[in-house]
């Protein structure tokens, strides 16, 4: 339960971090909050040659508002975002979901960008990013690019990020008037990864439901403004299409049930708080 | 840009309970091991080494942190507080520790150091917590023998005493 040996670089500037990432030729990992990477190192599930610590980069330390989005750079910790008094007005969905990410002790260190880079299919932050149709801002030594959340998560802990790129920031669209947002999850204990997590946004045109913990990545579907049995049918179809599997935590049938029930619950709640 | 090679040992400096300390570590050394083996401070416990049990929790720059998920080299220059810093002096328990004793909030004590550090850190920022808030903080810890009710009761009691709402002066000294 001790990490394998690696070189450790404490980057003082963004350029240094990106240069080191480039120079390592795919053998380096970014170390952000360490709340997923350190357990993986301790269990020796990964053996990078180099760790690049980005938590002392001033340029990545502060969230900012920019063209209709809350931009959260890679150095911002989950707890810092949750402490942001304006978050409930800016991105109410994330304000609802963040308290479900681990425990106070892990949120004090972990970062929203780290969750997105890690891309656990049950994780709450990637789910919210997808529900809100946010974007991931990637940067390598040579170029910067923006990837839409729908295109970013490509499989079980696999993303569109290239090896020499870091997630510089995520951009979460700000609350729009007339849109309702809701989040709910079921886990064995509060603080555990979700068995199923659902996030919904509802406006005057459509329902958008995103589901985590079932498919190999967070998955969203847009629906017209259905209700009653038409909504039940649509939720049932979505639940089956997600291809639920069975593991020690839940059967496939239970997962489908959770998608139908939590899905309905968050859609109802998002409709209710639409204003 | 400091690059600390895997092949050699490095000196890392931080303050522990207000005292400047330096310790020789590898780049891969966990903060738990730097404290326990490097500095002989065995109050910080090690249970699971993957962030789940909470027994290694310390405060880093005033926030709760799993020492088992922190590299010692990443703590360079930080202000670290451990359970050894909670006592009022040799043989004298701090307010939180005394409340744990009064409420029988520990049996084997393995989980206690971590829980005390989470609560100490939390109460510094939230002096008047609700039971529910404390339950969530303690929810980041596993205790396998005491049960959580006495721990929550001790935390509420200690919070009241720290606010000046209650006093147990005679019990603060160690028997
Ligand atoms: C007990 C416990 C319970 C938890 N429960 C939950 C939970 O319920 N829900 C949940 O979502 N998470 C949970 N987590 C995980 C936690 O939220 C992590 O903080 C998060 O998954 C990763 O963020 P991090 O900053 O700690 O990243 P790290 O652990 O530092 O990194 C994780 C991975 O992402 C890469 N990475 C990190 N940042 C970047 C970047 N900017 N650019 C490129 N790559 C990067 C790293 O190289 C590594 O591969 C839990 C963790 C613990 C220990
Ligand atoms: S030893 Fe660190 S959380 Fe268990
Ligand atoms: S007192 Fe024994 S584990 Fe908590």
Automatic annotation (TrEMBL), chain A:
Keyword Manganese: no
Domain FAD-binding PCMH-type per the UniProt entry, residue ranges: 1-177
Molecular function terms from GO: FAD binding; oxidoreductase activity
Matching SMART domains: CO_deh_flav_C (SM01092)
Keyword Magnesium: no
PROSITE patterns: FAD_PCMH
PANTHER family associated with the record: XANTHINE DEHYDROGENASE SUBUNIT C-RELATED
Record protein name field: Carbon monoxide dehydrogenase
Organism: Lichenibacterium ramalinae
Automatic annotation (TrEMBL), chain B:
UniProt keywords, alphabetically: 2Fe-2S, Iron, Iron-sulfur, Metal-binding, Oxidoreductase
Pfam families attached to this UniProt entry: Fer2, Fer2_2
Record-level Gene Ontology MF annotations: 2 iron, 2 sulfur cluster binding; metal ion binding; oxidoreductase activity
Highest taxon in the source lineage: Bacteria
Stated name of the protein: (2Fe-2S)-binding protein
Sequence ranges assigned to domain 2Fe-2S ferredoxin-type in this UniProt record: 10-86
